[in-house]
Specification:
A hairpin with a 2-residue loop joins strand 2 and strand 3. This protein has two domains: 107 residues, Urease, subunit C, domain 1 (Roll), CATH 2.30.40.10; 307 residues, Metal-dependent hydrolases (TIM Barrel), CATH 3.20.20. Strands 1, 2, 3, 4, 5, 17, 18, 19 and 20 form a nine-stranded mixed β-sheet that branches. The termini are far apart. It has 468 residues and is α/β, with parallel strands linked by helices. It contains 15 helices and 20 strands. Bound molecules: zinc ion (ZN).
Length: 468
């Protein structure tokens, strides 16, 4: 029997009816929550001091693309993107070059550095939609001890989902998408449930516009047959909207997928920004889940209608997507931008956004054992220090977390009761060594991209646009 005790924290249980327990001990035995009590006197293998800390269910980062972020940060944030496009279109060429030109060791370093940010950002479960290097990701799940739901994205290259060439969005050759779908099924067969069930495999069609209708239908059948989820980008940008409207006689992406019988509680739709009349009703009726990435969309000067989903009865999870992985920052953006869009300071509130990142995600993953702290739930926990000059003294712990904390305040994360991070350090790796390898890989890629004219030659003095 392995016992972990998290002592003296303020416990927010999450789940269907969240409760706050001040100064309790949380006991995890053999990976599951065994007790919440005032003073645990039994023997423990791992003791964690959570005095002055908030203890919450481990956060679920419900949508990322590992290996797509570290070398891309800062490259195009303030730059124009085509009106119909998304942020990633501007980066497609450099991302593609990374997949093609970096060695396996270089790419593995970037992916691990990316993963370190996700774990230090508060996630205990990471939902990964993979564009390459899935074997590296699987090794990281095994080595670093976190929980992951992994899908092989089809089509499986960044170029095939669109990039900018001569000012226009173009699509690269997608290759054999049917074969990639089969590879995803195969991965489910060989890897689902590995590492004491810390790894699960789902299907990952990229989007309604990039996957042929026939393969979307096959995906739905496989979901029913195997009980797996299908995660896809949905109503993400106007390029997608226009493509679907053209081929479906004017339907929205959501109407189109509904007409195929694709939607349901096994579907997680990422972004869901451009919704039109009736779309939210379809999502609610089919119990399709939405994954909200507020910070990523804000960089595109967009707010997805987060509050309309919640108010309309649609289950919502929270994700950083790419480029930044601080889950607390995404909680704050979800709350703040939701208030602005809703013109109401009261909605969404702190506990509502935290519920989305915990219980909402667990519902989307169809994992009743995740997203809450209760007897029998998995021992996936985040411990956040509420004693900094920015977030204390604490009148309301959830508001201190959402409005005044950041990932740097996270003291511990645990998965199955075992520590994964401590004070921002990911415990299963040598972070300094990974940092050096990842930085070197990025520098070499930038040099190659400058040579090819994909990036400006003098990167510290490139055009930063207007100043007023
Ligand atoms: Zn994505």
């Amino acid at each position: 029997m392995a016992t972990t005790v998290v002592r003296d924290g303020i416990i927010w249980t999450g789940g269907a009816s969240p409760q706050v327990h001040a100064r309790r001990d949380l006991v995890i035995e053999n990976g599951t929550v065994a007790a919440i009590e005032p003073a645990f006197r039994g023997r423990a293998d791992t003791e964690i001091d959570a005095g002055g800390c908030l203890v919450v269910p481990g956060l679920v980062n419900a949508h990322v693309h590992a290996g797509c972020s570290p070398h891309i940060r800062g490259m195009t944030e303030d730059a124009a993107i085509p009106k119909t496009g998304a942020y990633y279109h501007a980066l497609g060429s450099v991302l593609t070059m990374g997949y093609q030109q970096l060695s396996r060791d270089e790419f593995a370093a970037l992916m691990e550095w990316d993963c370190i940010a996700m774990l230090a950002g508060g996630a205990t479960t990471i939902v990964e939609e993979n564009f390459g290097g899935h074997d590296i990701w699987i090794e990281l799940v095994e080595k670093l001890g976190f929980r992951s739901d992994l899908g092989l994205t089809y089509p499986n290259s960044v170029a095939s989902i669109g990039y900018i060439k001569d000012g226009k969005i173009v699509m690269g050759d997608p290759g054999d998408i049917g074969a990639m779908f089969q590879a995803g099924l195969k991965l489910h067969e060989t890897h689902n449930g590995k590492f004491d069930d810390r790894l699960r495999i789902h299907l990952s069609p990229h989007g309604p516009d990039t996957v042929p209708e026939e393969i979307l239908r096959e995906t739905r059948k496989a979901c029913d047959r195997l009980g797996v989820n299908a995660n896809l980008h949905l109503a993400q940008h106007l390029e997608e909207r226009n493509t679907i409207a053209k081929k479906s006689g004017g339907k929205t992406s959501i109407e189109f997928l509904d007409s195929l019988g694709f939607l349901g509680p096994h579907v997680m739709g990422m972004h869901v920004t451009f919704v039109e009349k009736g779309d939210i009703g379809i999502l609610a009726r089919t119990r399709t889940n939405v994954v909200h990435g507020s910070y990523r969309k804000a960089k595109e000067a967009l707010i997805s209608p987060f509050w309309d989903f919640v108010a309309g009865g649609v289950n919502v999870a929270i994700a950083t997507d790419s480029f930044s992985h601080d889950m607390i920052q995404d909680l704050r953006f979800a709350a703040m931008l939701g208030k602005i869009r809703n013109k109401d300071v009261g909605t969404p509130n702190a506990s509502q956004v935290l519920a989305c990142a915990t219980a909402g995600a667990a519902t989307a993953l169809r994992r009743p054992d995740l997203g809450h702290i209760g007897i029998g739930a998995r021992g996936d926990i985040a411990v956040i220090d509420l004693g900094s000059p920015f977030n204390s003294p604490v009148y309301d712990p959830l508001r201190s977390l959402v409005y005044y904390s950041s990932a740097r305040d996270i003291r511990w994360t645990l998965v199955d009761g075992k520590p994964v991070t401590k004070n921002g350090q990911v415990l299963g790796t040598d972070m300094n060594a990974v940092r050096q390898r990842a930085h070197a890989a990025a520098e070499r890629l930038w040099m190659l991209a400058e040579k090819d004219g994909l990036l400006p030659k003098d990167r510290f003095h490139h055009d930063h646009g207007h100043t007023h």
